[in-house]
Amino acid sequence: MAVALTGACTAPPTDDDAGDEAGDAATEDDAESETGEPLGPTWHQDIAPMVHERCVGCHREGSIGPFALDDYPAASTWAGLALEAMESKQMPPWGQDDANCEPRLPFLNDPRPTQEELDLFAAWVDAGTPEGDPALAAELPELPELGLANVDFDLPMQAPIEIEPGGDQFWCMVLDPGFTEDTYVEGFQILPGNDLIVHHALVYVDAFGQTDALVDENGRYDCFGDAGVDAALIAVWAPGVPPQELPEDTALEIPANAKLVMQIHYHPTGATEIDPGTALQMRQFDGVPGWVAEYGLPGNDDDADGNGLGLQPGPNDATEDPEFRIPAGEANHTERMLISVPPTVNGKVINEVVVWSVGTHMHYLGVDARMSIDRLAPEANTGIDEECWIQTPYYNFEWQRGYNYDGALEDMPRVRPGDLIDIECTYDNSMNNPHLVEALAELGLSEPVDVYLGDETLDEMCLGVVGFAAPNDE
After folding, report:
1. Membrane-spanning regions, if any (predicted)?
2. How does residue 471 score in pLDDT terms, banded at 50, 70 and 90?
3. Domains of the chain, start order
4. Which of 35, 109, 214, 422 is the most exposed place for a label (fewest CB within 10 A)?
């Protein structure tokens, strides 16, 4: 999906072409209209390869996309809407943008079309979406392989689930990998049981069996936002996303006897649907890795700590002290937090870690987030002091994902205790936010209300998601 496949408009004929033999006539006919004017790009010759590369992973019959784009009749019908969605960066789902925050490395598996591809698609729409000659169709790229190679553990949810029409649903499925000793895992993938309704998924490690008191007889419980217990994030999945592969010689450690929590976001259709068995796949690391990976979730501070850290004063604070409150009707409210990197994470002492993945997390009001680092001392190998890690100006709660750096571990950002992580989140608590309108309707409300920090549907969060790796001392 990360490969840019740029089509080329069919070239208009030259005077020399006019006298060509019949073998070239078909190409000329396809390149010109009946008036002799250039026809422009066509579906079969120019557009289909790009659409298959960028869109068809989700927009095909039986998948999560609301309409198909995998053949000419469907693509030509939806072409105008598809162009609008791509130009506004609503699609393909990718919240990150580097216009005001340029990371030192690109991110893996970026599905966005290039500007050349957008221009080509716009020219096709402007030309009336001509089909072209199927006999001269360009070769279509194969859909990306989304399965995890060399799977060691295949863990389906314990029982099917029925999803009725209505609002979105969030269910936590508890899985038992049966690990009797600490186990290193280097690859993850989610296989949806029903592509029509499985919208995205997050996977957590419950190291202490906290979910035992929450699960029903089918091994699941209702949840929103996260796992609802003190659990460590280990994987993020969305439709069309390739398997999560950790950097070379790096693995996540899952403790012995731990349970896994697969939080699934279901997006109902207009009919009753069954998910017979969405599954988590994992691949074990062979041997002992040189680096052990974990996720940190800095943020979600609801007050200042007295040393200038924590929640910062905001534009709509009602008191002298900072408060996390998003006033009703505010369309551009911000909350900012400063977090000092701690000397220990999840009980482990850290000296210097390498950041290999970043992301942001908010709920339905979230529209933009930015995370940067201000180091106590410049990074030893680069001299970099301050840098922006990620900004997600096209954030959408329904399309959450992680952003993994594309590069060698030694070239990725480094962090030490005492460095400052700066997170700023922007929210739209007005009726111009369609996600808020939908959430209010589900709760029987018609107007915005003040929103505070919390875990419920109309609460909010402001979190960074940081995947980091430390040298393995085993």
Report:
1. none
2. very high
3. 15-136 (no CATH), 153-289 (2.60.120.310), 294-471 (2.60.120.230)
4. 35
